[in-house]
Every structure is written in structure tokens, then in C-alpha cells.
Amino acid sequence: MATSSKSHQRTGEQAWGKISKVNAELFTLTYGAMVMQLIQDFEDVGAVNKQLESMGYNIGVRLIDEFLAKAGVSTPCTDLKETADVVAKVAFKMFLGVTADVSSWNGDGTAFSLLLYDNPLIEFVELPPQYSGLLYSNLLCGVIRGALEMVQMKVSCRCVRDVLRGDDVNEIRVELKEMMEDVMDEDYKEG
């Protein structure tokens, strides 16, 4: 697995070079402005959390095409462990310029945590006490859920720890709910 992880890290570095980049500060400030607008529009932190996850899901559904086209991952992932490593080392690097560590697998190998020590979304951000329940990076949970659903993995994602709430790391917990059947393959077999 260590060899595979190093290979995925190299692939992530190569993919990072293929993507058009936006100024990191502009990206961070634009994201922050969007979150503030959602807070003004919804006036409820729970509703904002749901909206961020929903927006992320829609982004993930569309982002997977670019990932598959430009990432340079030569073979499809064979299991959830390899998928987790590709998300952490290739996808995060390709789109955010950072990598995540994969840890805390459950006994069944169906759930893991992504640890982000550098989260570009939270640069320049401090949460006021009235927004302590805000899952500021919940967009990432939606992106992961949407992208993996497009490759036939139904997962749930949630922010477990957040640097903005005083934790030492940002942690996203990902749990596989089901491997979905590929509808086209089933139609082809019946035809």
C-alpha cells in the first residue's frame, strides 16, 4: 500500500501541473463571501451546512469528469482503500493543491477519515461564537459524496473535526453505504 500511496502522490503532483489555477487568496476570499451570503440568506447555521453540502455535491458530480480526464490515474480503483488514497493524494492535490492523510479505518474497511492539515478554504477565517455550529468546509463533504457517487460508490461524508472550532486538524469521515450497480452494464447484459 505504501508504494501505491507514493505512486498516487506522484500522480497528484503531475495532475496539479495540468490544472489551470486561480489565485489562492482570491479563491479563499470568494468562498468566504459565498458562505457569508448563505448565512445572510438562510439565517440558520443548520440550513447553511445543508446548503454547503448540497452545493458541494453538485460540484462533485461535475468535477469527476475533469478528474478522470486529467488526473492521469491509469487504472480504475479496485477497492475503497485505493479510492481513499486517490481522493487524498490525487484529487485533493489536483483541485486544492494540498494532500490529505487517510486514517482511522473501521474493522470492515468501509469507513475512513481524511485528515487535512492544510485547508485552503479556511485561510483568513475566524468563526464568531454565534457561528460555532457552522461546518465551514462542508462543501468538501458534498464534493466527495457527489464525485464518488458518479463512480458508483454511495457514501456519506461529514466533518468530524475542524481547525476553526479549535481542533488540531480538519477531519472528514467517509463511510461507504453501497456499491451501486452500473446501469449501463446491466442494460448491456440484458440486450
Automatic annotation (TrEMBL):
Entry's localization field: Endoplasmic reticulum; Golgi apparatus, cis-Golgi network
Q: Which domain of life is it from?
A: Eukaryota
Q: Which UniProt keywords apply?
A: Endoplasmic reticulum, ER-Golgi transport, Golgi apparatus, Transport
**InterPro entries named among the record's database cross-references:** Bet3 (IPR016721), NO_sig/Golgi_transp_ligand-bd (IPR024096), TRAPP_component (IPR007194)
Of the GO CC terms on this record, one is: endoplasmic reticulum
- List GO BP terms, alphabetically: Golgi vesicle transport; macroautophagy
SUPFAM superfamilies (UniProt xref): Ligand-binding domain in the NO signalling and Golgi transport
> What function is annotated for this protein?
May play a role in vesicular transport from endoplasmic reticulum to Golgi.
Similarity section: Belongs to the TRAPP small subunits family. BET3 subfamily.
* Subunit record text: Homodimer.
Q: What is this protein called?
A: Trafficking protein particle complex subunit
